[in-house]
Specification:
Layout (H helix, E strand, L loop, with lengths): L5 E6 L6 H14 L4 E5 L6 H7 L3 E2 L3 E5 L2 E5 L2 H7 L3 E4 L15 H10 L3 E7 L7 H8 L9 H5 L3 E5 L3 H9 L6 H9 L4 H29 L11 E6 L5 H14 L4 E8 L9 H13 L3 E6 L3 H11 L4 E5 L14 H8 L5 E5 L20 H24 L4 H19 L1 H19 L11 H50 L4 H12 L3 E6 L8 E7 L12 E4 L4 E6 L8 H46 L2 H15 L7 H33 L7 E3 L1 H4 L12 E4 L7 E3 L1 H18 L6 E8 L2 E7 L32 H11 L3 E6 L5 E8 L17 H8 L1
Parallel strand pairs: 1-7, 1-8, 2-3, 2-6, 6-7, 9-10, 9-12, 10-11, 12-13, 19-21
Antiparallel strand pairs: 4-5, 14-15, 14-17, 16-17, 18-20, 21-22, 22-24, 23-24
Keywords: ATP-binding, Kinase, Membrane, Nucleotide-binding, Phosphoprotein, Transferase, Transmembrane, Transmembrane helix, Two-component regulatory system
Subcellular location: Cell membrane; Membrane
Protein name: histidine kinase
């Protein structure tokens, strides 16, 4: 038995009519003959709700004692033993009395669903777990009874029971919700107009999100390619600081307001070490963004604003979210900051949001804690201090005479400054220039290269030695910190690759895109060849103009084994980056092998499915074809027999049996041939513009007269189809509907136009098909339920769907309101995008082939 269906009536506040709507639905289902019981419904003394309980079967409640008081709860065991088709369970977020099997009522509902029982329930928006803080800030009341959002999101149907705040307050004032003694307090507190308006907005927005999900599913199922809305792609710039979580949550809320919004969090690591991040905090933020449905990206870039904008434009982002700078006011002397630069250079196509947070202007910490290789700006300032600084100092000391000892110390301080700013070479230049200027201008005899006092020679020697020592120490420290930064970046990237392996991510293109992002390249490709002299082929590529002929044509060539190479174009990578690139290349090879193994497994499954189809075909030939042949043989033998004198009535009956058997054979053989054509992919429709009312009436020739009714308006637009395939599809659909319709009930064939499409509906009033079997009835050799003998081999609907998809249409099954099954054939109207009229379309699609052979 399959899992039951869950339908939820969602309201913004108590009293909007959720329970009333649920009971009304129960009465409608009961009138249709559905086995429906009231498992637990609380009417709260509301007379109109209580009246609706009459006429419905109610399962007795279970009584539980708690703290000296007697309570009634849902008797889960009794409902499971009763095993109805539909059970009504009110107040999904209710907390059960201690002693019940489950702590929460939604857990009881999960057990009913697992037992195959459909459940209709109710819940208010304030009881959703994720909205607890928001509801408390609006109403001032913390909801103690909550239900996980995922439980409600998994519902098969969610119906919003809506009411304006004014109408709800009137209902409250009339005493239709609470007892009269509680009305004034409720109207003055929880049921204030502002509270109700805010709760209503929450409910509408939450349901709107579900509508977006259903819309995307519908567009996918019906192959709607026209854009019906815009997609927001939001990039969050992370620094690894504590404000990242706030930015991610803000981006997630913005994405939820748009149709199909997507969040991409990116951390840009600079090789010059001028940015830092806590690995622990980055790991927490990575987990947070993935939990919220986004993706995390780690990118290397020398210029953070430029790298961030390049990434955003590369992923076609619409918005960028950045946090307000953590720099203190005096630090703006060194530049406007990342946020201001990104906002200035983003252009009109990108919106930049600067989000405030608790860490604004609290500082980023000392530069020593960040340490890494010296940047370009520091090197420039180092050379300026090393070459220009001694000259300026000499001019100053010529104006102010401080003595040789003080002069040497000042020149030494300037050399140390040059070493701290620019490293070894600017410090050496400062020491050389400073020693020469000291000797010429301040060491007796002045304005001469010679030195008269030996002590001055010692002082200059010590000066040069100290300068060289300090410069060497600074340079070594810079190289060590640079190595540490590189190793940290490598460890993060390798951790990402390991995570991919553990999560089983197998997209080669996604991995190549990650390589391109990480190293800032223009394109990436994975090349392979069968032998040493065989030509190279491209297994996967991303970006513009990747090298696909030889790895040697690329800027970076990373071999993977003997016959595979990862090729990158854009710039030449330093040797220290190739170690990480080698890890990416090895992972790419693994991903490629995994993809091919999966393709082999798919082919093996296809072969197994083909064997199953052939086995079923043999069974059909041996049984369904043998039966009409046996009838024809018996009738012919009887007519040719000389031992019996047949009357005219008997002869007519025998001849009628021969004709019916021949018709059945013709129908079965036709379906078998059509299915073989579909499975071999040889159906090539000839698309023409025709009127639906020219073809559909001809499809009714195979059913008894009066068993089908046509309702096809003359104003329908023409459709682009293959007339023969459409007639055959409609004939199978109508014959199937007539076969299962009750005696005396005609089948309705109606057509209508909608947004560039024409829908033809074949409506019957038969027993219908449950939701879990609606796709299965389109599989070959499938007959739902107790199909009568001689009903065929179960190919009619499979052939109809295959022909519909071959013409670029769709065929789906829906429930008929009031009972029965409706087949919906969707066709492309003439003039809408698709195969050109008058030309042969492509052979029968792979989708149709999979549907037919599934």
């Amino acid at each position: 038995m399959g899992r039951g269906k869950l339908r939820i009536y969602l309201g913004a506040a108590p009293g909007v009519g959720k329970t009333y709507a649920m009971l009304s639905e129960a009465h409608r289902r009961t009138e249709r003959g559905t086995d429906c019981v009231v498992a637990f419904v609380e009417h709260h003394g509301r007379s109109r709700t209580e009246v609706l309980l009459h006429g419905l079967e109610q399962v007795p409640r279970r009584e539980l004692e708690h703290r000296g008081a007697l309570f009634t709860e849902l008797d889960l065991d009794a409902v499971l033993a009763r095993a109805p088709r539909v059970a009504l369970v009110d107040e999904l977020a209710h907390t059960n009395v201690p002693g019940a099997r489950n702590a929460k009522r939604w857990q009881d509902v999960e057990e009913l669903l697992a037992a195959g029982i459909d459940v209709v329930s109710t819940v208010n928006i304030q009881h959703l777990e994720s909205l607890g803080d928001v509801v408390e800030s609006i109403t001032g009341v913390r909801q103690q009874e909550t239900v996980p959002d995922e439980v409600v999101r998994r519902a098969d149907q969610i119906e919003l029971v809506d009411m304006s705040p004014q109408a709800l307050r009137r209902r409250m004032a009339h005493g239709n919700i609470y007892q009269p003694d509680k009305v004034d307090a409720a109207l003055s507190n929880y049921f204030r107009p502002g509270n109700l308006t805010a709760l209503r907005e929450l409910a509408l927005l939450w349901v709107a999100d579900r509508v977006d999900e259903y819309l995307q599913q519908y567009r996918s199922e019906h192959r709607v390619s026209k854009i019906w809305g815009s997609r927001e792609r939001i990039v969050v710039g992370l620094t690894g600081g504590p404000e990242g979580r706030t930015l991610i949550r803000r981006a997630a809320r913005l994405a939820e307001k748009g149709a199909g919004g997507e969040v991409l969090a990116v951390y840009i690591a600079r090789s010059d070490g001028l940015t830092s991040a806590s690995p622990k905090e980055l790991a927490v933020q990575r987990t947070l963004v993935e939990d919220l449905g986004g993706t995390f990206h780690h990118v290397l870039g020398e210029d953070i604003p430029a790298a961030l904008l390049d990434f955003a434009r590369g992923v076609n982002a619409t918005q960028i979210i950045l946090g307000s700078s953590r720099r203190k006011a005096w630090q703006y002397v060194f530049g406007p900051g990342v946020g201001a630069t990104v906002a200035r250079e983003s252009g009109p196509d990108l919106d930049v949001h600067i989000v405030t947070h608790e860490e604004v202007a609290k500082g980023r910490g000392l530069p020593v804690a960040r340490g890494a290789r010296l940047g370009r700006s520091r090197i420039v300032w180092g050379w300026f201090a090393g070459l220009g600084g001694p000259v300026l100092l000499t001019l100053l000391l010529n104006a102010v005479h401080l003595g040789l000892a003080n002069d040497v110390l000042l020149y030494l301080a300037l050399t140390v400054a040059a070493a701290l700013l620019g490293g070894l070479y600017p410090a050496l230049a400062s020491a050389a220039v400073g020693s020469l200027l000291l000797n010429w201008f301040f060491t007796p005899p002045v304005n001469r290269i010679t030195i008269a006092d030996p002590r001055n020679i010692l002082a200059l020697a010590i000066f040069v030695g100290v300068a060289l020592s300090v410069a060497s120490v600074v340079d070594v420290a810079a190289r060590r910190t640079h190595q540490a930064a590189r190793l940290r970046a490598e460890s993060e990237i390798l951790s990402f690759l390991a995570g991919n392996v553990l999560r089983g991510e197998t997209s080669l293109e996604a991995l190549l895109e990650r390589v391109r992002e990480t190293f800032g390249m223009e394109s990436a490709a994975l090349l392979e060849r069968e032998g040493d002299v065989a030509p190279w082929t491209c297994a996967g590529r991303v970006g513009a103009g990747p090298p696909v002929e030889r790895p040697e044509d690329a800027d970076v060539d990373m071999p993977v084994g003997d016959h595979m190479a990862l090729a990158l174009s854009g710039r030449v990578l330093p040797a220290e980056d190739r170690r990480v690139l080698a890890a990416f290349a090895a992972q790419a090879a693994v991903v490629l092998d995994r993809r091919r193994l999966r393709e082999e497994a798919d082919r093996a499954r296809a072969l197994a499915e083909g064997n199953r189809i052939r086995t079923a075909l043999l069974a059909a030939v041996s049984h369904d074809l043998r039966t009409p042949l046996a009838g024809i043989k018996a009738a012919v033998t009887s007519l040719r027999s000389d031992d019996v004198a047949w009357s005219e009535e008997d002869e007519a009956e025998l001849l009628e049996g021969i004709e019916e058997g021949a018709d059945r054979l013709d129908h079965l053989v036709g379906n078998l041939l059509d299915m073989s054509r579909l499975q071999t992919g040889t159906v090539t429709p000839l698309i023409r513009e025709i009127d639906v009312d020219e073809v559909v009436p001809m499809a009714l020739g195979g059913v008894p007269e009066g068993s089908a009714e046509l309702d096809i308006p003359e104003t329908l637009p023409m459709v682009a189809v293959d007339a023969g395939l459409l007639e055959r599809s409609m004939a199978n659909l109508v014959e199937n509907a007539v076969k299962y319709s009750p005696a005396g009930r005609t089948v309705l064939v109606a057509a209508s136009a909608l947004a560039g499409r024409v829908e033809v509906r074949v409506v019957d009033r038969g027993p219908g098909v449950p939701d879990e079997a609606k796709d299965r009835i389109f599989e070959p050799f499938q007959r739902y339920g107790d199909a009568p003998r001689g009903a065929g081999v179960g190919l009619g609907l499979a052939v109809a769907r295959g022909f519909a998809e071959a013409m670029g249409g769709t065929l789906n099954a829906e429930d008929t309101p009031g009972g029965g099954l409706t087949m919906v054939l969707t066709l492309r109207a003439a003039g809408s995008p698709g195969p050109a009229a008058g030309h042969s379309a492509r052979p029968y699609s792979a989708t149709a082939e999979r549907q037919a052979a599934r």
